[in-house]
Amino acid sequence: MALKDVMKDIEGYTRITEEIQTLRKYGSDFTDRKGEVERMMALLHPKTVPLVVSEIVTETESTKTFRLTARGGHLPPFQAGQYINVFLEAGGVRTSRPYSISSSPTQTGYYDITIRSVADGFVSSWFLEEARVGDAFESTSPSGTFTYNPLFHGNDLVFLAGGSGVTPFMSMIREVACKGLDRRIHLVYGSTDVKDIIFEQELAQITQRHPNIQVSHVISSPPKRYRGLKGFITAELMQELLGDLSAKTFYVCGPEVMYGFCRAELEKLGVARRKVRTEVYGPPRDVTSQPGWPGDVKAGDTFSVKIRGGRTIPARAGEPLMVSLERSHIVIPALCRSGECSLCRTKLMSGRVFHPEGVKLRKSDRQFGYIHPCMAYPLSDLEILL
Amino acid sequence: MPVYDAVVIGAGNGGLTAALTLAQAGKKVLLLERHNIPGGCATSFVRGRFEFEVALHQLSGMGSPERPGPLRAMLGEMGVLDKLEFVEMENLYRVVFPGTFDVTLPTNREQLVKELSLRFPKDADGLSRFMDLVYRFSMEMVQGLFFHDPDISREKYPVYFTYAFRNSQDVMDEFMESPFLKAILSVYWGYVGVPPSMLSFGDLAIMLWAYIEFKPYHLKGGSQALSNALLDKYLASGGEARFNCAARKIVVDGGAVKGVITEQGDRVDAGVVISNASTIHTYIDLIDRDAVPASELDAFKSHSIGPSAFTVYMGLDCEPADIGIHETTNFITTTVDADRAFSLWKTMEQQGWALLTCYDVSDPDFSPPGTCQAALVALQYGDPWYAVSPQEYADAKYRYAEGMLKLAERVFPKIRDHIEELEAASPLTHLRYLGHPGGAIYGFDQYAKDSPYFLTNRSAIKGLFFAGSWVGSGGFQPTLTSGRSTARSVLKALRKQ
After folding, report:
1. Are both B451 and B422 inside the same structural domain?
2. Which of B434, B457, B473 is the last residue of a domain?
């Protein structure tokens, strides 16, 4: 006997079919929910956000802020500390770069990104030299987890910033100031020279008006007779500046070298790992000096990468696979470009790659041969599945 | 000639097993997935040094290698067992009413009855008779339904035919007095999303029986390992998959499926489409309105969109025992009134009900040495979250998570001091990643009228099939099984042509 005949004999069957008939008279056929999921997602997490540069502010000799407003529609909200990945074409290559938003999340009309030119950074140079008011971009919606979490970060925060790593902190500080929150913040901000300090005036004004916000500048190559704090953000310096550390949560954002350094200094001070939040950072300057890099492969070695069912392209060992793909005009999904978010997750069919320490691969992705091309460096000829 | 025999939309549990079953039968299959990763709910994400399991709490139907349950048998037939390592959980679950009552149920039936009889001596006899009923019902259902007894009848299987559609609360009330005992025995209602007063006894009985007989399991690498293994096998079986590639449209002509148009605008011809997306998205968004049979829209009217979940994922810098976590599965509830907790699912109020799962108790390798992770989850409908403005969303999410953490602290007071990573997922998070209206995790509400008895995996549109929770029960075993059985219906239909 078929199931549909059997079930008619189950006690209660008739009652249920009657219930179904009644509901069919009055229920919804869901046609009014057409497009609902997409609309909801467009509010919070659209796939891309169309932006236009509405203003450019020169912050220091080497740093500018680009104010990005929506090209039609609204801007999805963000949490202070989050970043957007901006898609652009520079030097004939379609690529993208993640930038922390430096404006306050209470400013719903724009995202500010603050960019410092870096040696051989061709996207930052493009921004500083080529970008103009009126230029149009697309970006991802705001992402990232370098944000304040009220459930366990407490009310006493220390921000350790290096150089342009101050940008997410600027957003957090502006939010606390704007909303008048009672969070205590001490920004310890390391710059090479006094003239490199970004947001110096605004920070000074905020600290004047908000006693719960403090800023200490630390200058590594100060001018003669500089009377402020000098050198690096060491354990001794923090001990002196911050006093009792037991209830504090530390946030670290800056250049690559700063993370290892600060982590070690905080460890000296006995700060628990759970009390230290670190922002992700992009590809290392020299991947061949990373622990675990095989000695027989040189940065300049070039391998061939076969894309299953498609082309074969060249890829340098010293460059993330994603960059080599972009050089060959193959654009794959990208978000953090730091090995963390897994949006670029790709199946490696054959060959070997190097992932620097800190790349966040899932255990089973490792087992089944997936890589994160934004931080995967070829060590042999490869075949990948896109 | 269509290029593909079938296109499968969505690489969730049901989509994966459907695609794999078809590919292994020699069919040319294309699997489309909107995201960059297979699994749907069956996935994980990494924060700091933790890889968080998203959705799997207790895998049912596994059984041991010596005495395999239906799910282990099915995964074996599909050839993915050798890539996976399953971990049996030591106990069924712990239920804590903070400050009031606390009990842990063993997975062995006799020990379970013994433990509960000691705690509820007045109900000892009723409990033992209730468990007899659970077992008799389940044996009849297995014998009559799963093994397709051709002589199935009310006379031959009286318990099954009497109790399948009765509500669990009424049945429990007939046997036992203590509201605590009944709340403890029916705590799995959270795995269905329907309180005992409306939950079919059949659903409750088969769950209890299956978890006791085949034991609850987890697996190394979490549910993502299962999704990866299924996809890997599918690719090795000649299947093709496109990720970051949603279906934009199902082409229907003359009442039959002709193919699919992808979000990139490619047209893929196929005579069969298996949708692992929600039936709502499939009919309302993917198919032209005039091509959707009125009967299908009409059938929607007896269903309502089911609950989603709110989960707080925590990475802790201590061993589970350091903060008093000794069980993998901990139900925390402040009330025996499930109806009241359920009524709060449509609000932003705390419901005083949550499940805390700590995988590291049964699998010490699950998190890095000296750490563990806890997933604190409560069900909730998407509705109240639709009313939250985007600007208020982050605060609302933290507030709800804070309430849940406070509940967990009533049982594990030191938990907050050890949080190293914490991520909260609301119904809107589930909506984003699953694409389901309301962020529903089990498809439609699962009342008796919405049970597989009254649903079909086959559309009135020729060549269109469904796999997953929207055409059956929710949860891992049901959705994995659903894909396989839909693929078999497809193979049967293709043979007939």
Report:
1. no
2. B434
Cβ within 8 Å, pair B163-A28: no
Q: Chain A residue with minimal CA distance to B167?
A: A12
Residue A88's closest CA among A48, A36, A34, A117?
Answer: A48
Q: Does A288 touch chain B (CB under 8 A)?
A: no
Distance of residue B117 Cα from the nearest chain A Cα, in angstroms: 31
CA distance B312 to B422: 7
A209 touches chain B (CB under 8 A): no
DSSP β-bridge partners for residue A157? A185, A249
Does B149 share its domain with B183? yes
State pLDDT tens for residues B82-129: 999 999 999 999 999 999 999 999 999 999 999 999 999 999 999 999
Could you tell me how many CB contacts below 8 A there are between chain A and chain B? 170
Same domain flag for B420 and B313:
yes
- Of the candidates A107, A114, A58, the residue with the CA atom closest to the CA atom of residue A253: A114
Query: Which of B37, B390, B420 lies nearest to residue A274, judging by beta carbons?
Result: B420
CA dist B279 to B304, B458, B493, Å?
Answer: 12, 11, 20
Asked if B284 lies within 8 A of A33 by C-beta distance, the reply is yes
CB B303 within 8 A of CB B445: yes
Chain B residue at shortest CA distance from A150: B398
pLDDT, residue B1, reads 42
In a domain, B61, yes or no: no
Which one-letter DSSP state was computed for residue A115? E
Question: Pairing state of beta strands B329-333 and B91-97?
Answer: parallel
Question: Which chain B residues touch A34 with a CB distance below 8 Å?
Answer: 284-285
Is residue B429 within 8 A of residue B439, CB to CB? The reply is yes
Domains: count for chain B: 3
Contact B324, B358 (CB under 8 A): no
Mean pLDDT of A11-28: 94
B497 close to A (CB below 8 A) = no
- The answer, for A340 touching chain B at a CB cutoff of 8 Å, is yes
- Are A333 and A345 in contact by the 8 Å Cβ rule? The answer is no
- Give the model's confidence band at B497: pLDDT under 50 very low, under 70 low, under 90 confident, else very high: confident
Residue B410: domain span: 307-434
Q: Which domains does chain A have, with CATH numbers?
A: 45-139 (2.40.30.10), 156-278 (3.40.50.80), 290-385 (3.10.20.30)
Domain stops at, among B214, B248, B272: B214
Asked if A24 is an interface residue toward chain B (Cβ–Cβ < 8 A), one would say: yes
Chain A positions in Cβ-Cβ contact with residue B235 (cut-off 8 Å) = 347, 385
Answer yes or no: do B158 and B175 share one domain: yes
Query: B225–A367: do the CB atoms touch at under 8 Å?
Result: yes
B225/B296 same-domain check: yes
B163–A11 CB contact, under 8 Å: yes
The model's confidence at residue B33, banded by pLDDT at 50, 70 and 90, is: very high
A273: chain B residues, CB-CB within 8 Å: 317, 420
- For residues B313 and B191, give the distance between their C-alpha atoms in angstroms, rounded to a whole number: 18
Q: Which of residues 321-350 of B touch A (CB under 8 A)?
A: none
Q: Is residue A119 within 8 angstroms of chain B, CB to CB?
A: no
Identity of the amino acid at A202:
E
Q: Among the residues of B56-119, which ranges form H helices?
A: 70-77, 109-119
**Interchain CB distance below 8 Å, A342 and B416:** no
Indicate whether this complex's ipTM tops 0.90. Answer: yes
Integer-rounded Cα Rg, in Å, for chain A is 26
